[in-house]
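Protocol step 4 of 6: structure prediction from sequence.
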Amino acid sequence: MQLYVPPAKMINKDFIKQVLQEEKALMALDKVKFVSVPHYDELSVKKFLPMLLEDGDFRRYMPEPGKDERLPDRTFFWNIAHTLHGKYVKSVIQHANDLRMKGGEDKDTRENIVISEAWWEKLNAVPFVSCKLTALMHYYFQNLSPLAKSPHWQNLSPLAKSPHWQNLSPHGNWQNLTF
């Protein structure tokens, strides 16, 4: 039988002793409902721990805080919470996501940038290449892609004609790359 145990940093001899005396419990691994919780401030362990510790079932699976008052591991905490209170955890995550997604609606519209149709057409007429395009992508488009022979690509980036990009091997010889 496989058990879902807290990470090593959360386990101490007192927790093992409590498990063996059945004061605490370990959940069977096949019973755990794993969940991926976004790393939002409003979904922090610190915020939800006091509320969930009031539930006796939840408390049974959580090691007692040590002398350093360290918070439980985030992944372990949310997986146990989701297993025991799945609907609640899903609704909390959905609520946090909804707040994040509508975040711009309540903000001051003076910070929004409004662009005219004429400018939109001018900007869209020019191809855009991000400055974060890596050297490897330049090499691919220069030598391997069907676009490499396209005059549009050759005029697109002056970096593509630079000797720095020309000397790259297909494996990206980064040691010889100088700017």
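Step 5 (inspection) to follow. The two ends are 58 Å apart (CA to CA).
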